[in-house]
Design goal:
By secondary structure, the chain is α/β, with parallel strands linked by helices. It has 5 helices and 5 strands, in the order βαβαββαβαα. The chain has helices spanning about 30-40, 60-65, 105-120, 140-145, 145-155, and strands at about 15-20, 50-55, 70-75, 85-90, 120-125. Helix 1 crosses helix 5.
Length: about 160
Amino acid sequence: MTDPPSIDLGESVAILGIGSELRGDDAAGLELLRRLESRTGASAADRLLFVEGGVAPENHTGVIRRFDPDWIVLVDAVDFGADPGSGKWADPDDLGGESFSSHKSTPAMLRTFLTRETGAEVALFGVQPAEIEQGEGLSSAVTERLDDLAGRLAETIGTSH
């Protein structure tokens, strides 16, 4: 497990949700992004950017670059062998070279690309999926944990509710 990033309240943060809504729990990153955005207070809105990257997060680099964040937080379904719906900060280099998800870039490749393009620090928050199969909708195991995970993320990035 990687420690949470140390993000100051004065730093700007782009949160990039990754995944496909057509592949079950692969959409966990997108739904977690939405829940985090809905609990963000107005006082933090000017320093945060929420981006639904979908299956091609690298296509959203322009809007992130224009925002000029200090940090980019990737939020994605990541299989790290824990109970479904668990969340943790992960080092993209520890996840291996293959992406099990519907998106083509591995988290390590995406981090390298975003760092080069934006100069920002990049962190990854992973949600353990229960199932990544064709079909819409998250599993109940993942859905039940998303509000708690959104709270953990909000604490790390310094949002208020």
